[in-house]
Amino acid sequence: MMEGDEYCKYVSRTAPKTGELKTLLSAFCVGGFICMIGQGFTDLYAYLLPETEESMIGALTSMTMIFIGAAFTGFGIYDKIGSVAGAGSIIPITGFANSIASPAMEFRKEGIIFGLMAKMFVIAGPVIVTGVVSSVIVGAIYRIIAVV
User: Could you tell me which of 19, 42, 70, 121 has the fewest CB atoms within 10 Å of its CB?
Assistant: First the structure.
């Protein structure tokens, strides 16, 4: 059995070396590029639809980016982006689309109901539930504080 210091030395010898700087830089650049594309769509919609409210332009941009993320997942492009970018491809809204489309594609052979629809939110479902529950808790706390 290894002791604490001995184990730490063993781990440092056998663990694969990672290039943290390279990983961070690629995640930052790819994530930033995805966000830059989203800003481009926002600017394009604002230019093409000048009478449209800002919230509607934001919704159009979100829908466009979700569609692109799901389409890239379907064509296998998003996996290649993710292998280079790591977390840089997960953070933007396109990562959310990928987290929904991937399980749906994986389980489509089980049928539309039990495969595609049942498994679609396997990854994203807990995130959505956590967001909704935490927002209700924060809203309740805010309401209590606002009354006092």
Answer: 19
61, 41 contact by CB (below 8 A): yes
Q: How many domains does the chain have?
A: 1
**Span 108-131, pLDDT tens digits:** 677 767 766 677 777 677 877 888
For 52: left if phi > 0, alpha if psi spans -120 to 50, otherwise beta; the answer is beta
Q: 67, 37 in Cβ contact below 8 A?
A: no
d(CA 100, CA 96): 6
| Alpha carbon distance 63, 68 (integer Å) | 9
Question: What pTM did the predictor assign?
Answer: 0.67
The domain containing residue 33 runs over which residues? 22-106
